[in-house]
Amino acid sequence: MSPYVIGGLIAALTGLLVWRLTTVRDHWAEKRRQREHNRTVLRAALANYLAALDSLTLEYMDEPIRPTPDRLDRALDALSTRLGFNCRSL
Fold first, then answer.
1. C-alpha span between 14 and 22 (Å, rounded)
2. I want to staple 69 with a disulfide (CB 3.0 to 4.6 A). Which of 21, 26, 73, 88 is the partner?
3. What pLDDT score was predicted for residue 77?
4. Which residues, at least 6 apart from 80, have a Cβ–Cβ distance to it below 8 Å?
């Protein structure tokens, strides 16, 4: 082979290698930018969620939910009513 052909092959392979390395670098840079964007969006969503949860908690602290009596509570209320105890005044 002539030196010109070998030189051309070396230049072509070097160009191809540089192009590939640049493509890989750009790919990883784009993935890093996408991760940063996703992280920013997630932080904003989490901040909104925590703010909503905080306001809901403060709202329920002002007006707590009344517990619903289960089957045992209803049975004990019925038994105390039959026995003549007034448990509601306690």
1. 12
2. 73
3. 87
4. 87
How many residues belong to the chain? 90
pLDDT in tens, 45-58: 999 999 999 888 87
**Which positions ≥6 away from 83 have C-beta within 8 Å?**
none
CA pair distance 90, 86, nearest whole angstrom: 8
d(CA 65, CA 16) in angstroms, rounded, equals 69
Its sign, for the CA torsion 9, 11, 17, 22, is: negative
Query: What residue type is 12 in one-letter code?
Result: A
Q: Is the pLDDT of residue 41 over 90?
A: yes
Pairwise CA distance, residues 77 & 75, whole Å: 5
Name the one residue in this structure whose structure tokens are 């602290």. 61
When pLDDT is cut at 50, 70 and 90, the band that residue 87 belongs to is low
